[in-house]
Structures are given as structure tokens and as C-alpha cells.
Amino acid sequence: MAVATQTLEELCINSIRFLAIDAVEKAKSGHPGLPMGAAPMAFVLWDKFMRFNPKNPKWFNRDRFILSAGHGSMLQYALLYLTGFDSVTIEEIKQFRQWESKTPGHPENFVTPGVEVTTGPLGQGIANGVGLAMAEAHLAAKYNKPDAKIVDHYTYVLLGDGCNMEGVSGEACSLAGHLGLGKLIALYDDNHISIDGSTDVAFTEDVSLRFEAYGWHVLHVKDGNTDLDAIAKAIEEAKKVTDKPSMIKVTTTIGYGSPKKANTAGVHGSALGAEEVEATRKNLHWELPPFEVPQDVLDHMRKAIERGAKAESEWNQLFAEYKAKYPQEAASFERQISGQLPEGWDKVLPTYTPEDKGVATRKHSETCLNKLAAVLPELIGGSADLTHSNLTEIKGEGDFQKGQYQNRNIHFGVREHAMGAICNGMALHGSGLIPYGATFLIFTDYMRAAIRLSALSLAGTIWVMTHDSIGQGEDGPTHQPVETLASLRAIPNLTVIRPADGTEVSGAYKVAIEKAKKNNPTLLAFSRQNLPNLAGTSIEGVTKGAYTVVDSEGTPDLILIGTGSELNLCITAAEKLTAEGTKVRVVSMPSWELFAEQDAAYQESVLPKAVTKRVSVEAGVSFGWHKYIGTEGAAVSIERFGASAPGAVCMEKFGFTVDNVIATAKGIL
What we know:
CATH topology of the largest domain: Rossmann fold
CATH class of the largest domain: Alpha Beta
CATH architecture of the largest domain: 3-Layer(aba) Sandwich
Helix content: 40-55%
Strand order of the largest sheet: 10-9-11-12-14-13
Low-confidence stretches: none
Oligomer: single chain
Number of domains: 3
Shape: elongated
Structural class: alpha/beta
């Protein structure tokens, strides 16, 4: 058989290529070009450098691998299969891109053990990788001892031209260079082809010079198709540079081995076709039938199982010695990575009465963050250059900077999108960290892809958003979110909470922390303007999403539903309507998603179907509220962009007044 004339390394590399070719061909869908071109660098990395245990994909001290160019997912699935991960069998590879397979079109961490993060939207993976490297650096600085490095692993990222074109990668890599993340190594598949053809049509910059300007250590492997020694030497050199992240540009040929389609856009995003598959088999001297791998290849690649078991066993022994010497640190570390919360952690969350001075809910958020940080050492985060507007600083903690990775205040700079993706990477590191990222609510538009991916990939990230409405005032419509809450509520698995006062802020953080530990993200929306503390609000009520804060004698004639700064309007309006003889219930509804989680009996107890006269009051668009107010209800809302004026003036001019709430209610009664 002709394959016998190939070296073992060539057999391994061609096995990766043909698993990808055959899977894409069977599915009649996929991206074979990247796996064909990047197979040599991926083989060298996984065979000679990566530390991982195929039989325990979640072993803590494993090296992390991120396929940022996620369209080339068959590269990763081939590696997982060949090295012996139970999650990807040959049958799963045959089911590439099919219903409920563990080999979806793009890598998904919640589907396939061995996949660290969900990639596909280009640039997200490398930005996640920055977060993973930051998590490693933080934990190493916090827990390692001179005689026991229990946190000691690398983050490897394979990215492509598309990743380097996306702005999020530039944001994240700029920050990584500033921070000097020496255990982050990126392999850039420099193949000069994207969907539109040669990258020359749109992308002609010198990427290496750009990364050098970011502060990265940059290397170039000129022949990534066949020069395995050069690839290995570059990775070795990258590992020696400990004060900078490394970018290795590996020049390859997309679709390597295909006589007609190599180095063309035609091999980027579609199957080769039967004729070209056959021609490629002949060209690479591969006479095996589809999905067949030489036994020599499996024997060699699956040595990773033995290596991984040995590496994990050695780490377990190291940790046992660490635990004996440093029991307090070990207990904290074990508790954190287990995902458990310390007993009584939520007792630090304050509650308030109407006699307590009213402040902005962003100020209550600052109080909660600092009280929680004192009992939750895993809480870490910061703001996109708005620390003193978002009020997200952990007092008494230093800044996370190069050489000061033990600190918990992260300055992301004006990089909202990268902040989002980095926080997701930290959340998905597997270390139990609870990252938070903050900006103005309107600027979620800059980071929506990352917020969506936090929900999709089950990342326990907390999004802290302030300046939540037209009430933020003078900055005007560019900074006043009107449609933002509605759009965020449309994202599945994202819990959005807009609290009304200090007690509700505490409830929001209780939910957010608990959901983070269950690998679910939460977005908190806080006011810039001061708000009174209200009677009847509660932490427990927030956890249910909606609850009664003011009730009537007997069945109500009317239900007023408020969120955030508008709940107080509802309460005052109810007092006046009640004095006029109308029976009014006021419902605080800080979270649609939490209310939807409650059983039908509870939902009915709060919003009885028999009470059809309902008014929602929220300083945003009414989109979505009709689910709760029905056809006989009304919404006090804003259906246009805001205006530049003091916040109180904006609220009044746009109808967010007690008088307008009363008038709207009377209009439907």
C-alpha cells in the first residue's frame, strides 16, 4: 500500500487531512481547506508540546487549545479522535454537521468534551484565549509557591487571516501585549485566502509588524507545509519568552494536496467534490478508503493517553504536597475550582428601607461588588475605561497589570468587544473565576457578539451595565439606550435584570453569582440617577423575576408593572389611584427571564389572567411587553430615540411621570 512509503509523521498529518476531507465530503458541507493546510502545525503542537489527558478533558492543569478559525472544526475533531478522546469517535466524525452529533459545524464547548470555547465568529477565539491566559496568570500569581507551581499551563491559539481582520482580535491582542502574557502562544495560519479569494483584495498589512507594535514576540515559519522542524523550533522559542505573548506566523497552502483547488477560495468553504477528492488521494499517495486511519497512526497518536495520565498523576502528587504544606491556600483553590460557593456568602448583601438615603443603583452595585469581593476571591473584573462611571473598582485591591497578576481590578481600556470575549475566556477557564465586565448599557452594541456567545457557550460572566435609560441625561441619544433592553432580552439563556432600588440590586447580584457558578451569564442594568429605596422590595422577590410590592384589598382592577427607575412612578401612581377608589396592584418585574422560570401557579399569583387591565412602565421601547400587558393593556414607553437634556427633564418630556402613568391607566379602565 502506497501509504507505507510515508514517514510516520507524514501518515499522521495526512490522517488529519483525510479525516477532514472525508467528513466534509460526506456532509456535503464544511471547510476542508484549513485542516488540509494547517495539519502539520497542529500535529507538531499536539504531538510534541501540548499537555492534556484525553481521558480527563477537564484536568485542571492541562494546556488549552483554541481553534479561533472555528470554520476549520474538522481539524480539531480529527485531533480529538486521533489522540483518544472518548467524545469524538470515528462514528461521530462520520456524522459531521449532523443533528445531535458531537461534531457540529463549528466547535462548541458545551457539546464536545475537549473543546475549550465555542468558536466560529472570527476573532472571538483569540480574544477568548487572552482571557484564558489572564486566568492562568492570575491563579498562578495567587496560588503558586516557589516550591510548588500548581498552576502552570499554556494557552495555544490557532487563528487565521479572518481572525486577524476582525477588530476584536486587535483589541484583545493589544491588551495581551500590554499585559505581557508570556504563556499565550498564537499560531497564525498565514494562507492568504478568504471567502472572497486572495486576501490581497482587502488585507495587505504586515501582520507581524502589527503584533510587534502590540508588544508581542513574533516569529515566522516560512514553510508550514513540510518544515516540521521549523514549526517545532518556533514553538520552543516562543515558550522561552516569558514576558511577552508570542505570535508564530506559519505560512501554509490552504487545501494543501488538492491539485486543482489548493490555494484557492474554492477549498475554503465547500467540499472538494468526488473527482477532486480522488485526485487529492492520488497526489498525496493515500490509497485508504474514506475514514480509515493506519493503525500505526492510532498507535502513535494515542500515546497521548499514557502521557496525559502520567502528567495528571504527577500534578496530583504535586498538589497533595502543596495541600500538606499550604492547607489554607489549597482549601481555597479546591473550593474555587469545584464551583462551590462559601457557606453564607450572600449574607453580606445589604437590604434597605425607605428611610435610607436614595442613591443611583450603580452606587448600590459598587457596594455589592465590594462586599462580595471580600468573601468571593474568585470575583475579578473591571470596566472598558469607565471604572469611575460604572463604579466597578474593588477597593483595596490593586490593578491587574504585567507582573501584578494577583490583583483583581482589570483595566480593559476602550475595548468593549475584547472585554466581553476576554471575560468569557476567563469564565470558561475551568478555575471557578467569576469575571465581570462593565460599560454603559448602550455600548453592549459594541460587544453583542461576546454577550451572545456567553449565553450560547454557557460562560458564567456577569455583565455590569450602567446609565440604563434616557434618565442618564445630557449625553443625549447616542448614549441613551431605548431599544437595548428589548434586544438583550431576546438572547436565549441570558438573564437580564433591571433593579429598582438598593435591595433589588442585592437580589440581582445574588442571582448573578449563583448563575455564574452554574455557567450562565447575567446582565445587570443600573441607573445613573439617584433612586429612592422602596417599601416592599426584596431580595427573594428579585430571584423570582416579578413579585407584588403593593397590593389591593381583594382582586385588583388594575396592575401596574414597573422596572428599574420607573417602579417608584408605579407605586406613587397607585397611591393616588387607590385614593380615588381604584384597586391597584403594583408588580416589580426586574427580570422577564427569572419570571419565566417560575411555575404557572406562581405566575398566576402575580399576574392573574382575570385582571386584564395592566400598564407596563419602562423607559424603553414597548417591544415585548405585550406578552405581559395583553390586548387590553397599555405601555408607558419611549418609541423614538432620546434627547440631550438633564435626565429629569428627559424623563418628564417623554412621559415618565406619575401623572402620565395615571392618565394611561385611566385610559384603559
